Amino acid sequence: MDNTDLDNSKARSAEETLRKVNQDLERLQEELAHQLNQDGQTLGDKGARLLEEIRTLEGLAHRLRSQIEKPQPTVHPISTSATREEPVNQPPTAPPSPKPKPKEGQVVTGLLLAFLSACVLSLFNVTLKILLKLSPEPRLVLDMFPVDGLITPGLGNSLLILFLRMIVVMLVFPILATFLYPSVWSDLKRFIESNDYDHMIKVVGSGFFLFLSQVCIYIAIGNIPTGIAITIFFIYPIVTVFASWALFGDRPNLARIIAMAVILAGGIMALPQGGVEGNTQLGISAAIGAGVTFAGYVLLVGMGTKKLHPIPFSLVSFAAIFVFSGISLMFPLPPELGVVIEPNTQTGLLIGGSILGLLTLGSYLLNNFAIRFAGPALASIVGASGPALTALFSLFLIAEALKMQQWVGLGLVTLGVLGMSLERMLASKKA
Length: 431
Known about the structure:
Elements: H1 3-38, H2 45-69, H3 104-131, E1 139-141, E2 145-147, H4 155-180, H5 184-193, H6 197-223, H7 226-233, H8 236-248, H9 254-269, H10 280-304, H11 310-330, H12 346-374, H13 376-383, H14 386-398, H15 404-430
Antiparallel strand pairs: 1-2
């Protein structure tokens, strides 16, 4: 084999390796998009590891591209009888080009998509509030349009709203999943046929914890201001950090401890002081319960996605929520906790559940593409604005005002979550 054939063989080998690296990069980016979407846009332990893997693969891909594109030097044969090294005439080698970065336009587009995803998620929370009937008087939307609530807050009614929402999700998400990850059905087939019951328990268990979290946050929003409910819910990173420390030995550093202290202080300051509609104590307890159970979901996601791609994992989780909510509605509940539907509201409830389902899918899709364009670190920073955006949407859409102390607490929670995201990003870069 002459030098030309050898060079061509090396080039083909590099191209094949580059193709495989690019496939791995796409898979990891999709997995990280799912991880941030499920973790409330915070870059958790698994997200940081994924980000490190992505950067390593990007560096490898850059080196392979340079090897493929680099012109092969002309090598002159050297006499074997030479007693000293002679300089070989070769064209100068260009210095390696810097690591390619996303185009500025793509980053801006990604940041915009991440912001839109956070806005859609906040709009979902406010829409849920509008559907709830908290007083005989209709609620004014934009201070102009009177809208009657359709259903009173409670356990049974929260289960009903969640079930109606999941009907829409389960009708649309399989199509969306096929678009985002064409191998979703073959992966699900292998998952079902694997008989790996430990893994199956983790995947289904994550769906159960997410189901509990959703029911709790619905009850919380029905009893305390929407922005406050979401702010209290954002204590879940604290629970996740302590649980990771207890289960996996991931001891928090000083920066993380400070961020958790800021989140806790902000959550305490944001607590409602009375004078709001609904049962304040129940609302606070439900919001805390939503955060704690969501932390359990996050931990199980970290363990369950090691063997199953995030897209089919999401499909199984959504299916689990659909089944759990449907089964829960079959159990008899006390009259004060059961499903109570007023006459002539069935059509409105179906429309409202459909809107909630579409908003869920919209936020998921926007966040997925935001991470592809801007990267996970920037998307997670934008996602930290969730409590503030929810409070602002509630203020402007349904005039749900907060006290100054609550705004300060909300700001502290946002800063704490933002600080935790930045700490994860810097730790990943250092690694």
